[in-house]
Design brief:
about 160 residues; alpha+beta; four-stranded antiparallel β-sheet; 4 strands
Length: about 160
C-alpha cells in the first residue's frame, strides 16, 4: 500500500505535547459518537516511558475502576495503553470534551494512587501475563499525574499543541 495517509495520532506535535487529557478523535458509529481520549502521562521523547509492569497494573486498575463506576460504566468502551508507553487511550460513548472527564480522571487516578491489596485480575487464571505487575510504581505514577496534571489542569494540557 503506497501513499498511505498518516493517521491522526501521528500528526500531533509530540515535541511540544505535555502530559494531559486530550480528545484524540471522535467517531460516529450509527447515531452514537465515540470520543477517544489521549490520557498522556509522560512527556513524549523527554521523559522516560513507563515500564510494562506499571502500564499493565494501571490498565488492570483503571479498567476495573471505570467499568464499575456508577455514572460512567455504561459509557466505557475501552481503556488501554499506548504502544509508546507514554499514556493510555480511553474510549467513551458520547460527544465529549476533555473538561467533561476531569472529575472522572481525578477519581480514577486517586483510586489507583491509594490502591491496596491484590491487583484485580492479576492471577494466572485471569491474565495472560499476570506476573508483569508493579503496583508500587503504578501508585507513584498515578500520584504524579494527580499532582502535576489533574489538580491544576489548564488548557495547555487539555488541547493538543498547534
Amino acid at each position: 500500500m503506497k501513499n498511505m495517509e498518516k493517521i491522526a495520532s501521528f500528526t500531533i506535535d509530540h515535541i511540544r505535547l505535555l502530559p494531559g487529557i486530550y480528545v484524540s478523535r471522535k467517531d460516529q458509529i450509527g447515531t452514537e459518537t465515540v470520543t477517544t481520549f489521549d490520557i498522556r502521562m509522560t512527556a513524549p521523547n523527554r521523559e522516560p516511558v513507563m515500564n510494562t509492569a506499571e502500564v499493565h497494573t494501571i490498565e488492570h486498575l483503571g479498567a476495573t475502576f471505570l467499568r464499575n463506576h456508577p455514572q460512567w460504566r455504561d459509557r466505557v468502551i475501552y481503556f488501554g495503553p499506548m504502544g509508546c508507553r507514554t499514556g493510555f487511550y480511553l474510549l467513551l460513548a458520547g460527544n465529549l470534551e476533555s473538561r467533561d472527564i476531569i472529575p472522572l480522571m481525578e477519581e480514577m487516578f486517586s483510586f489507583m494512587a491509594g490502591f491496596e491489596g491484590e491487583v484485580p485480575g492479576a492471577s494466572p487464571k485471569d491474565c495472560g501475563n499476570y506476573l508483569d505487575m508493579n503496583l508500587g510504581m503504578a501508585k507513584l505514577l498515578s500520584r504524579k499525574f494527580l499532582d502535576e496534571v489533574i489538580w491544576d489542569i489548564g488548557d495547555e494540557r487539555l488541547y493538543y499543541p498547534q
